[in-house]
């Protein structure tokens, strides 16, 4: 056995590891999508001292949204965790809708629209999704029990 054999074994191990990683990401996404109600959704959560309305590409994370009863579960695209990273309650208020501008458009999927939402505690989050997913999202929020006001400006 020469040095070239050890090099080929190492190269084969690296290729095998990469295939397993990408394969497990694919299987995780299929597993999350099996119940339906999933859509591509990027999220940007407001950080203290950094307003959410700053139209910069910083802070956006691509992921997958899934409706689960009265909650919207959000999963990171490049993660192995079977648990959602964020869980958003249906009791939210829709503040604004806009299209991405400048460098922000390059950090999101093409054709996505940004919606800013606020929660009872004052937390604000921006969600970016396609027009079709936004239609479903608005219908889901409006289908909440009576007494919850929704406002889209």
Task: Explain the overall architecture.
The strands form two sheets. A four-stranded antiparallel β-sheet has the order 1-3-4-5, with helices on one face. It has a four-stranded antiparallel β-sheet with strand order 2-8-7-6. It is of the alpha+beta class and 153 residues long. 18% of the residues are buried. A hairpin with a 2-residue loop joins β3 and β4. It has two domains: 34 residues; 107 residues, Pleckstrin-homology domain (PH domain)/Phosphotyrosine-binding domain (PTB) (PH-domain like). The mean pLDDT is 81. The longest helix is centred in the first third of the chain and has 31 residues.
Topology at a glance:
Layout: H1 3-33, E1 38-40, E2 42-45, E3 63-68, E4 71-76, E5 86-89, E6 92-98, E7 113-119, E8 124-129, H2 131-142
Keywords:
single chain; about 150 residues; alpha+beta; PH-domain like; four-stranded antiparallel sheet; about 30% strand
Number of DSSP-assigned strands? 8
Span of the ends, CA to CA: 71 Å
Characterize the overall form.
elongated
- Second CATH tier, the architecture of the largest domain: Roll
Count of DSSP-assigned helices: 2
- For the record, what CATH class of the largest domain applies? Mainly Beta
**Mean of the pLDDT scores?**
81
Tally of distinct domains: 2
Q: Extract low-pLDDT stretches.
A: none
Give the % helix.
25-40%
Elements, N to C (H/E) = HEEEEEEEEH
Name of the CATH homologous superfamily of the largest domain: Pleckstrin-homology domain (PH domain)/Phosphotyrosine-binding domain (PTB)
Write a short abstract of this structure.
With 153 residues, this protein is α+β, with helices and mostly antiparallel strands. It contains two helices and eight strands. Helix content is 28%, strand content 28%.
